[in-house]
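# nightly structure sweep
# worker-07 picked up a monomer target from the shared queue
# config: single-sequence mode, recycle default, output format = structure tokens
# input follows
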Amino acid sequence: MEDRHALRKLSEHHPELLDKLYQASADGKHWTAFLETLVSACSSRSARLLVMDRQAQTVLSSTKVNIDDSEHRAYVDYYVNRCPWRPELMLKPPGRFYSSYHDCTCPQDKFYRTEFYNDWARHLDIAHGLSGAIYTDSRYTVQLLIQRTRGQGFFEPRLAELVNRTLAPHIRQALQLSRTRHLQQQLHLNVMAAAERSFMPFLLVDERGHMLYQSPLAQALIDRWPGLAITKGRLHFSYPAHRARFSMALKMASDDTSVSQQALVLTPEGSQTPIRLLVTPLLPGAPGDELWPDSNVSAVYLQDPTMHLDVDRDLVARLFGLTEAEARAAAGVSLGADPKDLAERHEVSLHTVRTQLKSAMQKMGVHRQAELATRVILSAATRDRHLAETSFYLK
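# output follows
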């Protein structure tokens, strides 16, 4: 006999489910409340919303109800791909829910003999499921799994059809809205973070090399440089050696956001003008969404070879707590002078300049002159001399 009580209960809860669902699309903290209502409406035991990689092999983040944290961790770390229901979802059309009893190729008696059931699900009394790869995009697959106990019985076809007809389209829409909101929020935070670090033109690139943003000046600068272009949403280098060096710098920044900036000086063949790039990992500017994982994003700063940089030594001293002499040495090496040039220019010994630079590096928390130069160039003390001379500033 059809589960008439479950059908009536789901229908009664439908307005509340939609209300909580679209609250979750606007604020990730509400996904738990939606799942709790869904479990009650479907007369079920528990539910999990899994954000996975595109191939649905690895759980990247999740929201769950009525599953102990340690049990859920064991599921995520080991049992997720041993459940006979879940991997099969990738073989079925996405955007729909499927009953493990009626739509799964693993018969119920065989399911009770699996490692998944006997080592994980049995003591939790999880015996039946209604599951679907409800949302997919170029990066993620999101699966929603609703579980029942042995006593609650399997999900009847009419209940699965009602969920697919009245709820599944809304879940897809809410996840799409949630994903779009998260991307816009993170892009805004990353653009703000990159712009605050330096006045230089910049691009934002994710760990896969996809372009997320380009500042207005960046495109004009790239158009003037030989051997460099933006093609199909990626920064394209004409020379394989340049591509390899950029990919390595991007990988280092993506793998460890604590690493310092990677400076690249690339000179195209037959050109007298080098291309100077600075790849800088960006830390998340705010707590991430409750559902979607944050991407590793790097800012790629472009140094315009026609730009005449100037460094405000007094501001360098105030920003980094340096003496006047230390700030003068730090500003000099940041603009390309070597210690010997600085010693001759300021009529002091080479030993004195090196001592000043060593002291400046200690105060700035860096270990190499290149790192010191990067810190100064990206700071508020560095200006385009031409803009400084032609712009109006508040005194």
